[in-house]
Amino acid sequence: MLNRPERLNAMNGPLMDSLAERLGWAARNPDVRCVVLCGSGSSFCAGGDVALMTDAARGASAQDNIGPRIDEQVDALDRRFASIEHLVSMPKPTVAMIRGWALGGGLCLALACDLRFAADDAKLGAGFLKQAISGNFGLAFLLASVLGSARAREFVLLHEWVSATDALLMGLVSAVRPSAELQSYTESVCSRLASGPTFAYGKFKDSLNFAMGTDLRRVLHYEAVNSRMTSLSDDAREAAAAFREKREPRFAGAPETGNTDKGVQR
């Protein structure tokens, strides 16, 4: 369980380290036959903690997008992605039980699970691009795996978030239930899965990952580089300032605001 309910289970270092440790334990433990990932309180996970997105909080500066400094920061991001790898490679069924918000990295955690069951009041969104960040936690890999490339582009570029009903129609979630019934429904499905041929489930997942033909570890690292670079852009700083000041951001659309090439190319 993601357990920072006072912050809508927003991600920080201790939460992600703890989650990776628990998922690693679950993957190795033969007594665990099915894994359910959920959030404490009203939401599944609201993504990265916005309080950690300022340069000061990250210990970053405008000059950090080159040289050894960014390598250190990318390595730190890579370590945070262990939970995604555990969920994708877990040799047993995994289920995300989604209430409230599933945004950014929180959406990625849900997409990394085999099945996603959502309450009828759930809201799902990519989240990253609103902060002028290209995305990480396997966003591109996972969305393309679940939706296909074309629908993934549509979802990220056109939707800040979608309702549970729309998520079901798009194929983002496997089922939608009234909030009061979500836990009992999830438990009933997971009980059936837990009594199934777990070894065969695991080997099927292994074959499916192989058939997809993409190395998730390389994708995660590539995303980490792009995410770190975009997080240091003027647009990302403007997004963070706009959030703090409760206004709409004014994006320049380029790494540096001095670039005058603006607008839609025709």
Helix content: 40-55%
Per DSSP, what share of the residues sits in E-state strands of 2 or more residues?
5-15%
Strand order of the largest sheet: 1-2-4-7
Q: Can you give the mean pLDDT? A: 86
Report the end-to-end length measured between terminal Cα atoms.
48 Å
The rounded Rg comes to 19 Å
Instruction: Label the overall shape.
Output: globular
The main sheet comes to:
4 strands, parallel
Family: Belongs to the enoyl-CoA hydratase/isomerase family.
GO molecular function: isomerase activity
Protein name: CoA isomerase
Biased composition (Polar residues): 257-266
Structure explained in plain terms:
- This protein is of the alpha/beta class and about 270 residues long.
- It has helices at about 15-30, 55-60, 70-80, 80-90, 105-110, 140-145, 150-160, 165-170, 180-195, 200-210, 215-230, 235-245, and strands spanning about 35, 95-100, 100-105, 115-120, 125, 160-165, 175.
- A 4-stranded parallel sheet has the order 1-2-4-7. Strands 3-5-6 form a 3-stranded mixed sheet.
